[in-house]
Give the backbone structure.
Amino acid sequence: MKVLLVRLREIGDVVFTTPAVRAIRLRFPDARLAYVVEPAAAPVVAGNPHLDDVIVAAKSGLAADLALGRRLKRERFDLAIDFHGGPRASLLTWLSRAPRRIGYDVPGRAWMYTERVARPRHLRPRHSVVNQWDLLAPLGIDPPSPSANPVDIPVDPAAAAAVDARLAAAGVGPDDRVIVVHVSAGNPFRRWPPAHFAALAAALAAGEPRRRLVFTSGPAERDAEARIAADARQALPADARHRIVSCGGFTLAELRALVDRAALYIGGDSGPLHIAAASRVPIVGLYGPTLPSRSEPWRDPRLVAEAVEVAGLPCRPCDQRVCAPGDFRCLTTLSAEAVAEAAERALARGADAAGGAE
């Protein structure tokens, strides 16, 4: 049996399919599983032990999609599952000509599937892993739980070695407590203000001498990351400024390995937060227009995770196309002090869980 899985677009959305990948492997242990993904999120599934093939849809446009569709058809898949439901994903699923094609019952594209699963058009306080898992119901797979079906991204040994070398070169010792702070988001509606990040980092760095704040960001926001680091250092006494560490950019594979070296991860609701969820490290998630109930770390609930949000705003959640109040208050009023308090709680809880104290 040959199974095709399709999930395009965002990193976090691909992370959210990894529990389903494992469930499909358990359901069809002898099947050949292939996954179609776009370049940005390909590292999320590149090392997945339950997949036999990762197909990167590198080029966009009708000609490229038709060519990829011909390739998929030649593979003679028996089953195709479209976890995305967008125009390109549904087209590729249909072009595979798999005799059994499962997808969402979306207007204008439902005819491309042989089996359709309902998907409400309004936002629900229901986790994205569960929403995508609905597509597995026709296969007789039971509903998921974060403890039994966590997100899964193995650490690449080469990436781990590279991260260790870079941290050592930056003066981070084995006894230092690394706090990873991801300062960007692909969606501007989810970006916490840079001044808030700088104030947060300075507060955490001032709290304990062994802490080392390591910033990460997307490739397009390296300059903003550098400014945040500079502002955080400036807010610290001269003898504490070395606690803000500059290591340069990290690939997704390196970010996954970096989090395993950390005592804490802090970041907004974006792909890197969900990569961090594949670790056992404490997490502080910042939620602006989104809800934790939809995108909190999907892993064992016994692991430490703190969600920080501004409650009581009638405009939350939103579709992230237009800020109705116009001032992004779901993020701008989320204070550095509130996030620092959540970070301290997470660090303390993480130390208690490890049987030690900071």
Summary: The longest helix spans residues 336-353. The radius of gyration is 21 Å.
